[in-house]
Specification:
about 20% strand, two-stranded antiparallel sheet, alpha/beta, globular, seven-stranded mixed β-sheet, single chain, about 35% helix
């Protein structure tokens, strides 16, 4: 079992490095053109149009689909936006990671523009601002799971825009290797199970955004196991959608 996990981890890392090399050589103009095509398709999706509460990853300056137009469109249409926030746990439970991700409310466009850029150039929330924001799952370090505004799944999501290094045609996704999204969705599902009879909560629609260079050919697939969450749909930079 341990050998299988090690082999899977190595296979993922090798593929990740191959794709990152490919993406590093991609001209900015190509990313911009594909991003426009992708967001146009996303905006036409019934699931996006109906969604009132959506999670959007905030994109790097290069090498992945730009989500800036999605933030702008969602705000213009009165949708509530949630963005990733990484929390370092003081006392993680056995078997749980020290760093976990929650989704935290982005207030408006001025709030987005004021975000600080991290070492990868990604707009990032500062810790001091989190307490005044709604959080999807609450403080993972707190026994009650509460911190900031919102608790439990009062801040449930309708749709999650998923990042990734690579994707395949069976809607598998290769992340950046930290497991943030997979563990977030696992925690979200647990919360949903706890309250589904009372609030009729359900899992959000998961849509991935892929540059053409991130989609594996039909003969290849992303290495995965039961811990990896599949997507509901994948929009590709060549103007196609898989679902």
């Amino acid at each position: 079992m341990h050998g299988d996990m090690t082999a899977l981890k190595l296979a993922k890392q090798e593929l990740r490095e191959t794709l990152r090399r490919r993406l590093s050589q991609l001209p900015t103009e190509a990313v911009t053109k594909q991003s426009r095509s992708i967001v146009d398709i996303l905006f036409s999706l019934p699931e996006y149009q109906a969604a009132q509460r959506i999670s959007i990853y905030l994109s790097m300056p290069s090498g992945e689909v730009s989500t800036v137009p999605i933030v702008q469109d969602a705000l213009n249409h009165g949708k509530k936006i949630f963005v990733p926030y990484i929390q370092t746990l003081a006392t993680p439970e056995p078997g749980r990671p020290r760093k976990v991700m929650d989704m935290v409310n982005l207030l408006d466009w001025a709030d987005y523009e004021a975000l600080e850029r991290d070492k990868w150039g990604i707009p990032t929330l500062v810790d001091d601002s989190v307490a005044r924001r709604e959080r999807c799952l609450g403080d993972a370090d707190s026994p009650s799971g509460k911190q900031g505004k919102g608790e439990g799944l009062e801040c449930g999501l309708d749709l999650v825009v998923m990042p990734g290094v690579g994707f395949d045609r069976a809607l598998r996704r290769l992340g950046h290797g930290k497991g943030f999204y997979d563990f977030f969705l696992q925690r979200y599902q647990q919360k949903t199970t706890e309250i589904e009879e009372e609030g009729n909560q359900k899992m959000p629609f998961l849509v991935g955004l892929a540059l053409e260079e991130q989609l594996l050919p039909p003969s290849e697939e992303i290495p995965s196991d039961s811990m990896d969450w599949p997507l509901n749909a994948l929009i590709v930079g060549d103007g196609t959608m898989i679902r």
